[in-house]
Design a protein that fits this description.
Blueprint: H1 20-27, H2 36-45, H3 50-68, H4 75-89, H5 98-110, H6 115-133, H7 142-154, H8 160-173, H9 178-197, H10 205-214, H11 224-233, H12 245-254, H13 261-277, E1 288-292, H14 300-306, H15 310-317, E2 324-328, H16 340-347, H17 353-361, H18 367-384, E3 395-399, E4 405-407, H19 410-424, H20 426-434, E5 446-448, E6 457-460, E7 463-469, H21 474-487, E8 492-499, E9 506-509, H22 512-515, E10 525-529, E11 535-537, H23 540-554, H24 556-564, E12 575-577, E13 586-589, E14 592-598, H25 603-616, E15 621-628, E16 635-638
Antiparallel strand pairs: 1-2, 3-4, 3-8, 5-7, 6-7, 8-9, 10-11, 10-15, 12-14, 13-14, 15-16
């Protein structure tokens, strides 16, 4: 009662020019900080009459709180709103940036609509998000629910923006079947599991999951599931590509699989392997514990058992997956330190198939046994988390109309094309490809073996007296093949593998003009906004500067702010105010010298940047490249920024 005597109610009357939300936030600035969810709730309800506020809260916001289990843990609303915002914007905003950026996104994209519609949308999606987090019961489909539970127990949460989008698509936002949803979730589980086992860095997953969530699936795609699986496949060569057999084997032998979040992942993987091995009902995950076969702390008896290298073996292997198994919660902790002979007797009686098979396979537990179990676990992982065509053929080439030759890398293509050209006429063609500079005199790439200039080169197959530089981008390897063929009087044709998810492989021609402009001084590009007149450019930096200027001409202040806040591919800024100390590769924008833009970028990045700037400003930027003008007329070709070779 004494505390209540100091309780006061303060009422403020706002004038028409006041911002009630700003006053609300300021009043709380000196007390306990408001959560992002509290700020969003107040913003959604602000300005409504009492009856409308009650209806909006009861019908939608209260439903959101219940779906997320937020009564006991209000921060869950913040996490949901952050992942919703990441999905909708493609930006990896931190949790403390959610409210401000949610408001900005809504006003920029949906400003003409009532905020009630946003509250309805959030409530509906919170129900799906609660299926991901387990706070809103089980998913109605058993397979989907098991996959969501696996992802939840695994302990890596950065997939949630993408997973929420998948559930929303299947729930009616897109034409997606339940089978497609299961297939994509299974591929996602495989991707995360293999990354963790291979001890690969998952730092890029945050950005990639956000980018996937925000990505628009083409309307004419034949298979929704195969489209996303191919998107994951296209990450090969990056730090978050799906690991192969060798990488998984090394990770199982070496990575720490116990302690902190690692224990959750290891327990979940071992539980899943056990459920696949056993026909009986799997014990509940909360009823099991991880057991170290070789104990966490070695007794003298264990040291004698392992031999003179006991401490080194213990240090390297004790927390690896090969030294872990599953036991029930009633397993006596004191037994964990007993010698393997005693443990072996108990393992044989275990309710876990994984642990019984361990006892059947290993009478002793030495370094050789640990290595053998690591190999067997690798085999089980590859079986239960399969990934096809991780290193599939990606390029093929031929000379003239000869048979196609398929390669897994552009490096192999370059070496084999050079060898095939020399095969045609060893004496003359070796001189032709060796002499002179390539790419308009820009550099030498082929040398005699043993010269000081060979640098990062590899011998040409069958002709190791010559070496060729392979330390260049894939598109330049392709260009080098074209130019070598031209010098030898033949045509080299190159195609890349566009798709193999529809039952047959679809190849796309790598067209020379898309890689390299014909001529040095003539017009090579043209662009326009929507259906306006075409404007021609001689260089990509000029294209970027003039597109930015045209967009600013449309709405100087609004588009200026949009471009300043834009982050290309979700994480990089290229547009600045002129007074900022940005990159030295920036140039002032014509007619708008209060802004500057980074022009020192790859051609592919400039094309994408122009298109993204246009989309942000509500217009379409179309870009074409001059393909040919040798027959009395100019032939133009649309420049597709998604062309894999343009991105090489």
């Amino acid at each position: 009662m004494k505390g209540l005597s100091r309780f006061k109610v303060i009422s403020f009357t706002c004038e028409s020019f006041d911002d009630p939300q700003q006053i609300f936030e300021s009043l709380n600035a000196t007390g306990v900080p408001l959560t992002e969810g509290e700020k969003v709730k107040n913003w959604l309800l602000m300005g409504l009459d009492r009856e409308s506020q009650d209806r909006l809260y009861i019908d939608h916001w209260y439903r959101l709180e219940q779906s997320l289990g937020a009564v006991a843990a209000p921060k869950r609303i913040d996490e949901f709103l952050r992942d919703f915002l990441r999905w909708k914007t493609g930006e990896t905003y931190g949790i403390d940036q959610t409210y401000a950026n949610l408001r900005r996104w809504w006003y920029e994209t949906e400003g003409s609509r009532d905020r009630t519609s946003l509250c309805e949308q959030l409530a509906r999606l919170a129900e799906l998000y609660g299926k991901i987090t387990g706070t809103n019961g089980q998913h109605e489909n058993k397979e989907v629910d098991e996959l969501l539970q696996y992802l939840r127990d695994f302990g890596i949460d950065v997939h949630r923006p993408f997973t929420l989008r998948l559930l929303s698509d299947e729930a009616g936002a897109a034409d997606v079947s339940r089978a497609d949803l299961v297939k994509v979730l299974r591929a996602l589980s495989t991707w995360l599991t293999r990354l963790w086992l291979a001890k690969a860095s998952t730092s890029g997953l945050n950005t990639e999951s956000t980018r996937f969530a925000n990505h628009r699936v083409p309307q004419n795609v034949e298979s929704y599931a195969n489209y996303w699986i191919d998107k994951i496949r296209r990450l090969r060569g990056t730090g978050i590509a799906v690991p192969n057999e060798e990488e998984i084997g090394v990770g199982i032998r070496k990575r720490r699989a116990y302690g902190g979040k690692a224990s959750n992942a290891a327990r979940t993987i071992l539980w899943e392997i056990n459920s696949q091995l056993s026909n009986a009902a799997n014990p509940k995950r909360e009823e099991l514990s991880i057991e170290h076969i070789m104990p966490r702390k070695l007794s003298q008896e264990w040291r004698d058992y392992l031999g003179e290298d006991a401490d080194n073996l213990h240090e390297n292997c004790v927390h690896t997956l090969a030294n872990l198994t599953l036991v029930g919660e009633r397993f006596n902790p004191e037994i964990s330190n007993q010698i393997y002979k005693e443990k072996h007797k108990l393992y044989k009686k275990s309710s876990f198939e994984l642990t019984r098979k361990l006892a059947e396979s290993y009478v002793n537990w030495t370094q050789e046994d640990i290595e053998d179990r690591a190999q067997k676990l690798t085999g089980l992982v590859l079986k239960y988390w399969p990934w096809e065509n991780v290193s599939r053929t990606k390029v093929r080439w031929r000379i003239g109309d000869n048979e196609w030759q398929e390669e897994k890398t552009f490096k192999n293509m370059l070496l084999n094309v050079a060898a095939a050209l020399i095969d045609i006429d060893p004496l003359e063609n070796s001189k032709r490809i060796l002499d002179g500079k390539y790419f308009r005199g820009g550099g030498r790439y082929i040398f005699r073996s043993g010269t000081r200039r060979e640098g990062r080169c590899l011998p040409i197959p069958r002709y190791d007296e010559y070496v060729i530089s392979v330390d260049i981008w894939d598109k330049y390897k392709t260009l080098l093949c074209y130019e070598m063929g031209k010098r030898c009087g033949v045509e080299i044709v190159v195609e890349f593998l566009k798709d193999s998810t529809v039952g047959e492989r679809v190849w796309g021609r790598v067209d020379l003009p898309l890689l390299y402009a014909n001529g040095e001084k003539r017009t090579r590009l043209r662009w326009r906004i929507n259906e306006d007149d075409w404007l021609e450019e001689q260089a990509y930096p000029g294209l970027l500067l003039n597109v930015a200027a045209a967009l600013l001409d449309l709405e100087p202040e609004e588009n200026g702010n949009r471009l300043l806040n834009m982050k290309h591919m979700g994480n990089r800024t290229y547009f600045f105010r002129s007074e900022t100390s940005a990159s030295s590769r920036c140039k002032l924008i014509p007619g708008h010298d209060e802004y500057k833009i980074n022009v020192g970028l790859m051609h592919m990045t400039i094309v994408k940047l122009c298109r993204e700037m246009g989309e942000l400003c509500g217009v379409k930027v179309v870009i074409e490249i001059l393909k040919d003008s040798t027959k009395g007329e100019q032939i133009w070709e649309r420049l597709d920024s998604n062309d894999p070779m343009l991105e090489a």
